[in-house]
Design a protein that fits this description.
15% of the residues are buried. This protein has strands spanning 22-41, 47-57, 65-75, 84-87, 98-109, 114-122, 127-131, 134-140, 146-152, 161-167, 172-175, 185-190. The protein has no helices and twelve strands.
Length: 191
């Protein structure tokens, strides 16, 4: 949103949204897999469930067909102009990964929140390949961020332990922990 940095102008928002409302965002999107975040505000209590779909046909008509991509659950922020970020989640409650490539239309549905904008963040994927007695974990990095691989031996363990931290440099990075025990769980933290 660089057009508003330092200009003294207010940013855009869509207010007074409600159930049954919808908004189309037709753009030339970058190619790749993305996590989507909605910047929204909700002055009243409770949450506002909102959906995100891809328009698959009928663009520009009242009979559009769509494919569901996930949902946002915008929580109360205390005021209608106090914004926070809400992730798009899939049906199981996990962060949804949306594949985009060129011109397309995303459709935001329902309401109950003031809307500011959508943010596309490259989805970080941790790939695992066994090799002998080790596990080769690899992930793409971006300059300016650090990547920490965490692990735990049981999902019920209270905390995650740090395996390794690497600085991003726009290349593929990897770590190769020795496999121990019958199972181990890994996650990647980007900071």
């Amino acid at each position: 949103r660089p057009a508003y940095n330092g200009t003294g102008l207010s940013d855009y928002d869509v207010g007074n949204t409600g159930t049954g409302d919808w908004w189309n965002y037709t753009r030339t999107y970058p190619s790749g897999n993305f996590n989507v975040y909605l910047r929204g505000a909700r002055g009243s209590t409770g949450t506002a469930p909102m959906g995100l779909q891809r328009v698959t046909s009928g663009w520009g008509t009242s009979t559009q067909t769509t494919a569901n991509l996930g949902s946002f659950s915008v929580a109360a922020t205390g005021a209608w102009q106090t914004y926070s970020w809400t992730p798009l989640n899939d049906a199981s409650g996990k962060p949804a990964v949306v594949s985009l490539d060129g011109q397309g239309t995303l459709r935001l549905t329902d309401g109950g929140a003031n809307l500011n904008f959508l943010l596309l963040a490259p989805a970080v994927v941790l790939s695992a390949t066994p090799s002998g007695g080790s596990l080769h974990l690899s992930f793409a990095t971006q300059s300016g961020f650090n990547y920490t691989v965490l692990y735990k031996d049981h999902l019920s363990d209270a905390t995650w332990s740090e395996l390794s931290t690497v600085a991003g440099d726009d290349s593929l990075k990897s770590v190769s922990p020795t496999m121990t025990g019958p199972s181990r769980f890994y996650r990647l933290l980007v900071h």
